[in-house]
Amino acid sequence: MGLIKRLGILLLIVILLALLSIYWPSLTGKVSQLSNNNENSNFVKETVFVTRVVDGDTIHARVNGADETIRLLGINTPEKNKPYYNEAKNFLIHEIENKSVEILKDKEDVDKYGRKLRYIFYGDRMINVEIVENGFATTFMLDDLDYKDKFETAEKFARQNGIGLWMKSSDKCAFCISLVKLEFNAPEYFIIKNNCDFECNLDGWLVKDDANHFFNLDNLLAGEIKEYKTKTGTEVWNDLGDRFFMRDNYGRLVVFYQY
After folding, report:
1. 20 to 30 Å CA-CA from 199: which of 11, 30, 81, 109?
2. 235 labelled catalytic
């Protein structure tokens, strides 16, 4: 075999390996294992020790000898007493509590509550992305985040596979209730309808936005249409884009809408 031909084959192998390293996460559907370099960030990782998990998106850690509260970037997990709250919290307890991890900031250092906003890495895994991939969190405030694409890919994987918070309701009324209209300009309101010919018991059903604003739903008679208004002086639905989740009493998804 000539030298030029051997060099050509070697070059082809190098190109194929490079392409495989780029597209392997999307081919497998797994995006939570990341390289240890700060591929998207101008900031440097810090090694900290996780002392306590507060909930699915908040921890306490020892940072340079001081106790700090850290809010995981890019995610929103269920509030206490809501479905999947325990699953999200227990995930963090199992994976990172009483362990040394690396944290990395993005463009903002702290939130309005003084919590450090960070990505959390354990080995080659980004915990923020992994909890989304497992369906224990939804993505949140991704605009301008360095790892936005990874979060979106993880959520797409969970949604398409009906994992965790994306599991669809099997309640007979889940096939009856529809969102007729969502008005995000003041005065805000949304309208839902029971399209079935029987009454639907919606006790324990909730509607929420991308953040943590909740609406309790009432029973709907056959064919009934009902309007729910946002309280005067309160803004729930973001003018620049938001998401509408309706869940049954088990936390399973009935209606999802985003704009």
Report:
1. 81
2. no
Active-site choice (6, 39, 62, 79): 79
Instruction: For residue 247, give both structure tokens.
Output: 């869940």
Judge if 102 and 59 occupy the same domain: yes
Please tell me which residue in 52, 71, 159, 243 is annotated as part of the active site: 71
Catalytic-residue membership of 71: yes
Name the residue among 234, 232, 228 with its Cα closest to residue 246.
228
Q: Are 184 and 238 in contact (CB under 8 A)?
A: yes
User: Which amino acid is present at 34?
Assistant: L
| b (16+ CB within 10 A) / e for 62-96 | ebeeeebbbbbbbbbbbeeebbbbbbbbebbbebb
Residue with tokens 């030029």: 4
Q: What is the mean pLDDT of each run of 10 residues along the chain (259 residues)?
A: 59 58 45 49 89 98 97 97 97 98 96 97 97 98 96 98 98 98 96 98 97 97 98 93 97 98
39 domain-assigned: no
Q: How far apart are CA 146 and CA 152, in angstroms?
A: 12
11 located within any domain: no
Q: What's the rounded Cα separation, in Å, for the pair 250 and 256?
A: 16
